[in-house]
Each structure stands twice: as C-alpha cells, then as structure tokens.
Amino acid sequence: MTDTITTPETASRRPTPAARGGRPRRRKLTFDRVTFFLAFLGIPLAVFVTFVLYPFIQAIYWAMTDWRGFSPDYNFVGLDNFTKMFQDDVFLKALRNVALLAAVVPLVTLTLALGVAVAITLGGPSKGPVRGIRGASFYRIISFFPYVVPAIIVGLIWAQMFDPNAGLVNGFLTKAGLDQFEAFAWLGEKATAMPSLMFVFVWGLVGFYAVLFIAAIKGVPAELYEAARIDGAGRFRTTISITLPAIRDSVQTAYIYLGIAALDAFVFVQALLPNGGPDNSTLTISQRLFNVAFRQQQFGYATAMGVVLAVVTLVFAALVFTVSRLTGGGEGKENARGSKARRAGAKGGAQ
Q1: Average pLDDT of the chain to the nearest whole number
Q2: Where found, per UniProt (predicted)?
Q3: 152, 267 in Cβ contact below 8 A?
Q4: Is 14 a domain residue?
Q5: Is residue 78 part of a domain?
Q6: Which of these, 56, 62, 114, 290, could form a disulfide with 303 (CB 3.0-4.6 Å)?
Q7: Closest residue by Cα to residue 307 from 22, 45, 82
Q8: Looking at the domain assignment, is residue 82 inside a domain?
C-alpha cells in the first residue's frame, strides 16, 4: 500500500469548494466555451428568431392593418379586424368546427392506433415469451400505407368514393341490400359531411401513429409483461397498467401533433369539400382565411385569423400538457412509476 502525501501543489489541484449557498463558482469564459455556445445555441437561436419569431411578430402587425395584399398602401386599424372577426358568424362557425375536429379526431385516431400497435406487438400466443402476432411486419406495412399517399390525393380519392352516383361507398351499401343509400350524398348532407371528413382524416393518419406506438412499445422491457402474465393479468389489464404508462410521452406528443393537424385540416377539407360543406358544416379557419385573403383580397383581416388560429393552437398544446401533468405526468412521477414497475417485474420474476 502506498501512502498519499498531500503537498501544496496537489492541494491546489483539488476541486474548488462551492460558493456560499451551495452554488458552484462561475466558470471563466474560454474560447472553447464561447465557440461551443455560438455554434450550438447562437446559430439555432438566430435561425429561430429570423424564421419563426420575427414573422409571427410581423403577422401581428399586419393583422392590425387594412392591407389588401397587392399594394404598398395600407392603414393601421388597431384591433378592428379582431373585433370584426368575432362578430363574423361564418368565422365563429369555422372556429366551432375546428374545435370539434380537435376534440374527436385525435381521440379516435390514437385509440385505433394504440389498439393496432398493441395487437401487432403483444397479440401473440398467451404462453411462452411475449411476442406479437404472426406476420407483424406485413400488418405494419399495410397500416402505414395510407400515410405514404399525399393528403391531397387521399382527399380526392375519398371524394370519388363518396360520390352519390358512381361512388364505391354507395355501391357496396347497395349491394349489401341497403337501397336507401343508392344515391345518398355523404358530403352533401349536413348530418354526414363532418363525420365523413373525420373518417377520412382518421383513415389517412392512423397508420403513422400505429407505427409510432409500435416502436414505443418495443422499447418497454419484456420482463414487465412477463411478470404481469405470471401474476395473471389479461391483455387489457396489461395494456392499461403497463403499456400506456410506459409510452405516455409518445401518446402526449402524438396527441399534440394530431390536434395541430386537426385545427389546420386545410388539405383534407379543401380536397373533399372546397366550399365548406352544406351550411358551412365543415368549414375550417384555414379555409376561411384562404377565401378572405385570396378571393376577397383582405389580407389584413385574413392575417388576424391566422394569429387567432396560432393562439388557439398554443392554447390546445398548453391544455394537453396541463391535463397530462394533472393526471400523473411529469418527469419525477414517470421515474417513480418506472422504478415501481421494475420492482414489480423483479418480484414477479423471482416468484
């Protein structure tokens, strides 16, 4: 054993003690640290300010003008555009429509996507190692296929499918003996236009989120499922108690992205119902914005609608984060839940 001799030189190389209050002393700015921050923080921040923050501030300014879009002349009108907007019955109808889409489409899409993902990854035999169903790769490809097709093509295809005279939907229903659908206008009736739009929306996006959830489920430790199987938990109970908590972050992110897509919903709606549907039953804010800007040439008023849509989107994202935190989300709680699940898995394996 060698003795360690402390000398003034070795003592000087020891870490400096923390300052009062437990805070470490501030490090000196060196050339290496400055270049690091400039490269990995300064440049992305400059790009964000230039292409995201500044255009948004500029949009707020144009929303307070009567700019016509094709001339340099305009007048500053303050909040008149926003006042006019919330007195516009057509815009309020569009706002209600996108709120309905944001409430229904993410919930239905993610529920179906999660069901497909769980069935593919965990729907195998009840005995032996936990594994997916036979031919899982084939089902992943089939479910992902609609997302590969551009949204405008999906909308145009389904517009033909819903055609009252030559559409396949009415053709299949008529062949099945439902003669009342022989010339039924799915997109022309107020009661069925919005449900038809939601169906196309879900059909086009469910495959992508199913593949996303499949990748997330494959990252869950297999011993947790094996411990649950030993304890006698069924497939539904396993999904609720293990799968959902383990992929909570993926579900939350998917819900936000789907909500943003539903609040926009321009491509699907424009392909299926370019005029907003019967009695504006499927009109969205983005459609109303497009019509006001490029058909009525009221770009200032249209920009005000875009600002409101951006605020609604931010409120939706904040609401999802708040609900997630209130229902048990958060990094600390996730870590505690993960530790508890690992302990339960270890105990089940020992038994």
Answers
A1: 84
A2: Cell membrane
A3: yes
A4: no
A5: no
A6: 62
A7: 82
A8: no
The structure's pTM equals 0.80
Please give the tally of structural domains in the chain. Answer: 1
Distances (CA, A) of 107 to 102, 144, 228, 259: 9, 19, 27, 9
Q: Token digits for 132?
A: 């997916």
Rounded CA gap, 197 and 101, in Å? 9
Average pLDDT over residues 166-182: 89
Task: List pLDDT tens digits, range 4-33.
Answer: 454 545 444 555 555 555 566 666 778 788
C-alpha dist (Å) from residue 299 to 84, 205, 225, 303, 343: 14, 32, 56, 6, 60
Count of other CB atoms within 10 angstroms of residue 95? 22
φ, ψ for residue 183 (rounded to 5)? Answer: -135, 40
Task: Examine residue 265 and state whether it is found in any structural domain, yes or no.
Answer: yes
Rounded CA-CA distance 173/165 in Å is 12
Place of tokens 């984060």: 321
Alpha-carbon distance of 283 to 293, in angstroms, equals 15
The CATH number for 290's domain is 1.10.3720.10
CA angle 17, 20, 21 (to 5 degrees): 115
Token readout for 92 is: 């309020």
> What digits encode the pLDDT tens for the residues 57-83?
999 999 999 999 888 889 999 999 999
Distance CA 39, CA 33 (A): 10
List the beta bridge partners of residue 65. 76
Range of the domain at 302: 88-350
Amino acid at 197: L
**Residue range 105-144, pLDDT digits in tens:** 999 999 999 999 998 888 766 676 667 777 777 888 888 8
**What is the SS3 assignment for 220?**
coil
